Write a sequence for this structure.
């Protein structure tokens, strides 16, 4: 999805299938393969999967030679060393082991609860209309025996089930080893059997752990087959209705066939396979090296000659017409060229595709389907969705996802399509914005995103003076804000990146799009309140560069890219601080307005301090782990020599502690943590021995300064946790997940009874009145005040009191309590408080 500074979606493309590198003035250019590729390369490289990143670039942008591939990776992640690299299957295997551990004995701490988003109204489209959005839907399956029953797979949010055509939803695989889903399929002979292929082929392929099966229509799931799929991603699953028990699988590792319902599999082709269609005893498979056909249940496959087809595709999809199985289609992309073929009478012929199709992200968003009742009507998905109708020899095309100035539009980036059982007019489309239903073949649309809690959060920030205010950046669904309702506010469009809030004045909020594009709001992130405050940066950066404000005081804000940019006046003016040698910032922390720490993608750590008149040059600290991607930093504001650093790169220590300002480090990742990337760290300001870290799977707590760790809290889905933030006054820890929304847990448990005490004592002369004050009470707390006479005097009131509140700062309040003696003799009394809630 584009943001205000992004290129238009259909700007002229260059030879690389992207808008010109660098874009127009003030606009960053789109890299080859689109922004989705830049994100994916960054994600793979941060975990140490450099070879997989190079392979993905070669697939998504094959027009680049090896040097171009390396340059694209460098542009996505910056200078980096090569830490010990795990195999993709090794990461997925670690997921399996971690999930098994999480399913074991009860975790430490109270229960997590979801903050949503239950839905996000006002989501962006490429048309004039706005829609409710959720997150990326990668697979759809409709029940062949029940038109109201459907399942969807979220990219990294698991399988979801609806029994009312998508009006309401329930998650079904929150305890699975991975929540990545690439394919879903009902058994046409027995709709109570459903298969799910894990590892979303489009993006999260390396987290695949095999095939799941449900025998009750999609409510309960269990692993069916792990071998040979651990570390592979699924694109498609297809049952062969003419051969009981035969199932075909299209994966990043090739084309597989099972003859026992999916329990065991044989690989028939080793080339990446994207799409399958099985009907009338025939199977078609769309592979990277072309279209292949089988008529013996998938045992043997022969190449299909497509006129003018290239030797290799960036993406290819296929579909056989159910109403006339002699008719079939193939829909492919190579470079900037979209290609379409139709088979009729046994002969394949080329068809001119719809005009304006963008192929820059064909590796990521692509689908093909034939209307169940018309072999002459097809649906194509790319960034947009199209409907094509053949009359005689003439095709007519409609863009059904983007209606321009009038009509219903839906979110771009199309991934999946399905038809309602028995109703060919009704289509379901899944894309980066969620799930959408058309009752009339794409003429009008309804969103089905209420209760589909699959938003992918990248980063979170909060207001320390409010327990019910959180803002976060999300993948392709903008920046969104929570103020206590499960319905979140869509604050800004585009790709929502890192986010920061001024602690003293939370009206001032910052967020990034992709690249060094920073915006500021001075009205708490209200829609329409953002202005561009980007520094004039000449260097590159991560896709989502780190942005931070001071954790304690002042108006210091910093943005990290190929250099560190610092402002002491809320981004009105910037100072550029160069790294001593080429580097890319990956994490920052500002413990006070005068101290900044910045970590890099290759494991280096730097500090700068305000002298009173200028920022000092970046000074290197000892690197905790050379060559490992620094994902987060924390420093104790009261003692900035006490540091914590986490690493995303596996294969070594991933959480480190220093008590001497970064001269020496202790590896604190030895006991109780999974061997997965760590993404964020928080330290309890009340107890600096209590630490939390967010992992690619779960949140973990240490109460002994990292000597040992345990899973923290119960009820959190087995989700990828990208960020955590601790609210020190409300005493809740929030987790931003991909793609299961935002969750929170009370770190000390919810209060089950009020906390009462005496704050002061006093004495008043006869008829006198006096005012007392008590200060530094957190503004999030709900407090009642009572003034109680110390001696008994029955018959009439002895004292009265009134309470007034002063908001002394954003975080703290002062209570002014005026007490009046109603008697004609001195009265002694107690000023008592009752804390009803800290939240």
């Amino acid at each position: 999805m584009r943001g205000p500074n992004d290129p238009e979606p259909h700007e002229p493309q260059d030879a690389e299938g992207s808008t010109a590198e660098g874009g127009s003035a003030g606009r960053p250019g789109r890299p080859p393969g689109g922004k989705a590729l830049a994100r994916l390369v960054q994600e793979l490289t941060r975990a140490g999967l450099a070879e997989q990143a190079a392979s993905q670039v070669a697939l998504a942008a094959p027009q680049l030679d090896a040097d171009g591939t390396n340059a694209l990776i460098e542009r996505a992640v910056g200078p980096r060393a090569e830490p010990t690299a795990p195999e993709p299957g090794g990461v997925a295997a670690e997921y399996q082991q971690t999930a098994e551990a999480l399913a074991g004995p009860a975790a430490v701490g109270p229960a997590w609860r979801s903050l949503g988003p239950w839905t996000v109204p006002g989501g962006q489209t490429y048309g004039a209309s706005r829609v409710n959005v959720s997150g990326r839907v990668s697979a759809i399956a409709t029940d062949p025996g029940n038109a109201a029953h459907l399942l969807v797979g979220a990219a990294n949010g698991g399988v979801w089930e609806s029994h009312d055509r998508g009006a309401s939803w329930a998650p079904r695989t929150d305890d699975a080893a991975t929540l990545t889903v690439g394919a879903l399929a009902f058994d046409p002979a027995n709709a109570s059997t459903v298969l799910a292929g894990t590892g979303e082929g489009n993006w999260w392929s390396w987290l695949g752990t095999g095939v799941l099966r449900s025998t009750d229509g999609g409510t309960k799931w269990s692993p069916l087959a792990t071998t040979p799929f651990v570390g592979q991603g699924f694109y498609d699953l297809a049952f062969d209705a003419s051969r009981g028990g035969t199932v075909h699988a299209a994966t990043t590792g090739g084309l597989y066939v099972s003859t026992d319902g999916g329990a065991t599999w044989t690989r028939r082709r080793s080339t990446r396979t994207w799409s399958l269609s099985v009907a009338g005893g025939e199977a078609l498979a769309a592979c990277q090296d072309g279209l292949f056909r089988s008529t013996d249940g998938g045992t043997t496959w022969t190449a299909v000659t497509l006129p003018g087809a290239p030797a290799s595709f960036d993406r290819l999809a296929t579909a056989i017409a159910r109403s006339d199985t002699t008719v079939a289609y193939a829909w492919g992309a190579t470079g900037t060229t979209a290609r379409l073929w139709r088979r009729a009478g046994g002969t394949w012929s080329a068809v001119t595709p719809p005009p304006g199709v963008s192929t820059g992200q064909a590796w990521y968003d692509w689908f093909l389907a034939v209307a169940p009742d018309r072999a002459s009507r097809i649906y194509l998905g790319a960034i947009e969705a199209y409907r094509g109708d053949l009359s005689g020899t003439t095709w007519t095309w409609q863009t059904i996802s983007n209606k321009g100035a009038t009509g219903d539009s839906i979110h771009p980036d199309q991934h999946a399509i399905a038809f309602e059982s028995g109703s060919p007019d009704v289509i379901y489309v899944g894309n980066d914005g969620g799930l959408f239903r058309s009752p009339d073949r794409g003429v009008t649309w309804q969103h089905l995103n209420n209760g589909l809690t699959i938003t992918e959060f990248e980063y979170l920030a909060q207001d320390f003076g409010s327990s019910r205010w959180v803002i976060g950046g999300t993948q392709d669904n903008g920046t969104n804000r929570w103020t206590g309702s499960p319905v979140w506010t869509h604050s800004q469009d585009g790709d929502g990146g890192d986010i920061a809030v001024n602690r003293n004045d939370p009206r001032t909020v910052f967020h990034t799009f992709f690249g060094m594009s920073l915006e500021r709001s001075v009205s708490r992130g209200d829609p329409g309140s953002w202005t561009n405050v980007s520094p004039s940066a000449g260097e590159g950066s991560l896709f989502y560069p780190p942005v931070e404000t001071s954790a304690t005081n002042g108006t210091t804000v910093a943005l990290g890219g190929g250099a560190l940019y610092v402002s002491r006046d809320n981004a009105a003016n910037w100072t550029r601080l160069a790294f001593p040698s080429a580097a890319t910032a990956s994490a920052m922390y500002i413990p006070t307005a005068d101290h900044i720490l910045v970590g890099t993608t290759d494991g280096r750590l730097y500090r700068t301090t305000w002298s009173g008149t200028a920022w000092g040059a970046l000074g290197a600290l000892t690197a905790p782990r050379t060559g490992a991607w620094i994902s987060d930093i924390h420093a104790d504001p009261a003692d900035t020599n006490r540091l914590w650093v986490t690493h995303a790169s596996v294969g070594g220590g991933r959480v480190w502690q220093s008590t001497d300002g970064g001269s020496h480090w202790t590896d604190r990742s030895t006991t109780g943590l999974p061997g997965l990337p760590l993404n964020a760290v928080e330290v309890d300001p009340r107890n600096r021995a209590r630490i939390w870290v967010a992992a690619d799977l779960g949140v973990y707590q240490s109460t002994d300064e990292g000597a040992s760790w345990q899973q923290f809290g119960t009820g959190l889905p087995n989700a990828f946790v990208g960020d955590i933030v601790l609210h020190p006054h409300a005493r809740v820890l929030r987790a931003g997940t991909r793609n299961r929304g935002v969750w929170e847990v009370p770190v000390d448990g919810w209060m089950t009874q009020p906390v009462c005490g005496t704050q002061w004592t006093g004495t008043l002369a006869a008829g006198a009145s006096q005012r007392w004050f008590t200060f530094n009470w957190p503004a999030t707390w709900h407090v009642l005040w009572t003034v109680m006479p110390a001696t008994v005097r029955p018959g009439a009131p002895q004292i009265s009191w009134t309470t007034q509140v002063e908001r002394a700062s954003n975080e703290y309040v002062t209570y002014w309590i005026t007490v009046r003696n109603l008697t004609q003799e001195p009265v002694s009394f107690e000023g008592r408080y009752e804390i009803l809630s800290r939240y």
Notes: DSSP finds four helices and 65 strands in the chain. Residues 7-28 have pLDDT under 50 and may be disordered. The helical segments are 34-46, 50-60, 66-77, 88-102. The longest strand covers residues 827-837.
